[in-house]
Amino acid sequence: MIEIDIAQLEEIYNFAIPQKKPMKNNYFLDIPLKDTWLCLPKERLTQTEIALLSSLFLEKQETMIDQHRHPWYQFLVNNQPIKKVTGKYRLLHFSMINNEKMTAKLEWLKAFTNMFDNPIDSFYITDTYGVLIEKKGKNNFSSEQLEGILLTLETDFNCKVSLYLGNFYPYSEKFPQLFSEERTISCQKETQISANQVTVFSQVALHYLTKDSIPDSSIMTYFQAHLLIDPTMKKIIKTLWLHQGNISSTSKELYMHRNTLQYRLEKFKDNTGLSLKNMDDLALSYLITLTQ
């Protein structure tokens, strides 16, 4: 917390309300100053002021983790075992996309965690990234349901969050290794190829598992050099891949008439010899778009 004369802040923001305790709601920005809180009505502040005041007074201390209260942090990050843990668990890796507008990170995390029936723990690891640990039960959310939850919270908190949804794994000493790899995947830009905010491994597996071997392939090097794909066609290929080759779903998402899409696919086949209606050719074309 920054040391500053409270009188200075009160002079600048003469509409601030001094309080012994923070308001803790979405209508006020609570600024801690020694043993006092200044509660500023957000409707009187610009977005720039909210972002600046938050970065100066709140964000770093707000997400600072108390390691002793989060044994799963010690387990995942420091590889310290947890006693008497059984069952299967999955990790939900969340990342703040527009961090500059996010002023209530702990409140967002609390609201997100409260949506689950079996949350074991949740915390931030960095200022913009964290995890929620969930135990497998009868009513675990699907990726589609999580999309809806994120959209609801986006409206309530004026923030956009992307989510990498991990698989359920049995508790074991190898869990931290699985966490480490999932964290790597969640932080890669390639996970944002999905049109959705929630990404799962099956959506990124092809590129993730082949990205290191592609540069060593003479065939792929040839395709990269000779099969140049324009931006519009790249978008069509990626969308078609995400919709598993479904023409109707792809044309709907692209706001493109089905006949226009069919024409572009036929033209692409004439130019390249690759039929995007064939899943093998589509997979190859998709990989090429990721490496150009």
UniProtKB/TrEMBL annotation:
Pfam short name (any one): HTH_30
Matches recorded under SUPFAM superfamilies: Homeodomain-like
Signal peptide: none
Residue ranges that the Swiss-Prot or TrEMBL entry lists as coiled coil: none
Domain PucR C-terminal helix-turn-helix: 239-284
InterPro entries referenced in this protein's UniProt entry, alphabetically: CdaR-like_regulators, Homeodomain-like_sf, PucR_C-HTH_dom, PucR_C-HTH_sf
Entries under PANTHER family matching the protein: CARBOHYDRATE DIACID REGULATOR (PTHR33744:SF15)
Protein name: Helix-turn-helix domain-containing protein
Organism: Vagococcus intermedius
